């Protein structure tokens, strides 16, 4: 099937960027094309890291204020460390930097979980999720987030034994946490039980 992006223009340019384009693409059930105007929200690509702390048998999460979820009555979200990929930075380099910046841990090895589009009907962002294991000795910095970005991040440790129940109860309400924890339960739980 063929498609073409035509007349693309940036209509909003800030931390988030919005592009507007005329697109033409083939259809599934006819030999005709569809031409329509579409918008794309662009903020660049991101990483997220599910971290398991071996000596405490806990997962490491962060809690921080999120304006978009606050509009739905949930201002502080518990999620795995995550952040944007800087220019000329690999996904692994971004993951290592964000973990140190947000919770103060130095990670050495990462296992790739998945790369996906969280909301492909609106966002151009791709998120790469990784898994890593650390010990409490690898906490080498304060963490808490980037001062220049006015981040205020709290480290939250949740016992591995609580994860399945919290997941089933709907405690986690963000895609990176849900996807990474489900991956863990499918791929690692027999190794750690």
Layout of secondary structure:
Elements (H helix, E strand, L loop, with lengths): L2 E11 L3 E10 L6 E10 L3 E8 L4 E8 L1 H4 L5 E4 L2 E3 L6 H13 L7 E6 L10 E8 L19 E6 H9 L6 H13 L1 H4 L1
Parallel strand pairs: 4-9
Antiparallel strand pairs: 1-2, 2-3, 4-5, 4-7, 5-6, 5-10, 8-9
Compact overview of the structure:
By secondary structure, this protein is α+β, with helices and mostly antiparallel strands. The protein is 22% helix and 38% strand. It is built from 5 helices and 10 strands.
Main sheet properties: 7 strands, mixed
In oligomeric terms, what are we looking at? Answer: single chain
Spans of at least 5 consecutive residues with low confidence: none
Distance between the termini: 47 Å
Mean pLDDT: 95
Report the portion of residues in β strands. 35-45%
Number of strands: 10
Please state the overall shape, judged from the principal axes of the Cα atoms. Answer: globular
| Secondary structure tally, helices | 5
Which range best describes the helical content: under 10%, 10-25%, 25-40%, 40-55%, 55-70% or over 70%? 10-25%
Radius of gyration: 19 Å
Could you say which structural class the secondary elements and strand pairing correspond to?
alpha+beta
Order of helices and strands: EEEEEHEEHEEEHHH
């Amino acid at each position: 099937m063929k498609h073409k992006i035509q007349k693309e223009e940036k209509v909003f340019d800030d931390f988030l960027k919005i592009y507007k384009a005329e697109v033409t693409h083939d259809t599934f059930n006819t030999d005709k094309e569809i031409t329509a105007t579409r918008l794309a929200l662009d903020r660049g690509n991101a990483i997220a890291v599910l971290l398991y702390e071996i000596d405490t048998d806990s997962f490491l999460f962060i809690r921080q204020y999120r304006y978009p979820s606050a509009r739905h009555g949930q201002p502080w979200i518990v999620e795995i460390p995550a952040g944007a990929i800087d220019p000329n930075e690999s996904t692994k380099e971004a993951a290592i930097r964000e973990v140190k910046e947000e919770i103060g841990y130095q990670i050495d090895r990462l296992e790739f979980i998945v790369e996906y589009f969280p909301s492909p009907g609106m966002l151009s962002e791709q998120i790469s999720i990784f898994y890593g294991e650390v010990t409490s000795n690898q906490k080498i910095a304060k963490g808490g987030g980037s001062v220049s970005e006015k981040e205020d991040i709290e480290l939250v440790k949740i016992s591995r034994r609580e994860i399945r129940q919290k997941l089933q109860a709907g405690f986690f309400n963000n895609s990176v946490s849900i996807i990474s924890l489900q991956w863990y339960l499918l791929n690692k739980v027999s190794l750690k039980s």
